């Protein structure tokens, strides 16, 4: 199985408590620290490593810095990475879609089976350009 390396090794991961994503009785559950569980809802970043899916809320921050894929992966290579979108309110635990949106890993859509998630819910992500080009001013 092909792994995806961290494309920005100079970005060191921060130590976080990550959760694991599991499917139980037809609902996706977040297994947190000390085996505490809750039904997933909202948007999460995820990485798949050795068949296990690790997650954190996309809005999570530590010391004002967003928690990203490199933190979830502890800087290691991943099988896959991206975002998960769950229903909320009365439909918690229902995965609506997932993507390969990860700037640090940029996994290819062709290897989406590495994620271990339902293929029919996959939507390829749109990546922002890593390099912004600044044009010099015109000399009139």
Quick structural gist:
The protein is mainly β and 140 residues long. Helix content is 3%, strand content 31%. The strands form two sheets. A seven-stranded antiparallel beta sheet has the order 3-2-1-5-4-8-9, with no helix packed on it. Strands 6-7 form a two-stranded antiparallel sheet.
Give me some keywords for this one.
140 residues; mainly beta; 7-stranded antiparallel beta sheet; two-stranded antiparallel sheet; 1 helix; 9 strands; 3% helix; 31% strand; disordered C terminus
What's the layout of helices and strands?
Elements: E1 19-24, E2 27-31, E3 37-39, E4 42-49, E5 52-57, E6 61-62, E7 65-66, H1 69-72, E8 80-86, E9 95-99
Antiparallel strand pairs: 1-2, 1-5, 2-3, 4-5, 4-8, 6-7, 8-9
Number of helices: 1
In total, the number of strands is 9
The neighbouring-strand order within the major sheet is: 3-2-1-5-4-8-9
- Spans of 5+ residues with little confidence (pLDDT < 50)? 129-140
Beta-strand residue percentage: 25-35%
Distance between the termini: 56 Å
Number of domains: 1
Main sheet specs: 7 strands, antiparallel
> If you compute it from the alpha carbons, what radius of gyration comes out, rounded to the nearest whole angstrom?
17 Å
- Whole-number average pLDDT? 89
Please state the overall shape, judged from the principal axes of the Cα atoms. Answer: globular
Q: Helical proportion?
A: under 10%
Strand and helix order? EEEEEEEHEE
Backbone structural class: mainly beta
């Amino acid at each position: 199985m092909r792994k995806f390396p961290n494309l920005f090794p100079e970005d060191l991961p921060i130590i976080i408590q990550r959760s694991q994503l599991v499917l139980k009785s037809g609902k996706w559950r977040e297994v947190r620290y000390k085996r505490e569980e809750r039904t997933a809802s909202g948007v999460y970043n995820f990485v798949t490593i050795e068949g296990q899916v690790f997650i954190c809320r996309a809005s999570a921050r530590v010391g004002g810095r967003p928690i990203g894929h490199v933190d979830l992966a502890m800087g290691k290579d991943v099988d896959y990475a991206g975002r998960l979108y769950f229903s909320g309110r009365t439909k918690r635990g229902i995965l609506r879609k997932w993507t390969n949106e990860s700037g640090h890993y940029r996994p290819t859509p062709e290897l989406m089976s590495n994620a271990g998630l339902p293929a029919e819910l996959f939507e390829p992500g749109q990546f922002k350009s890593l390099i912004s080009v600044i044009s010099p001013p015109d000399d009139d």
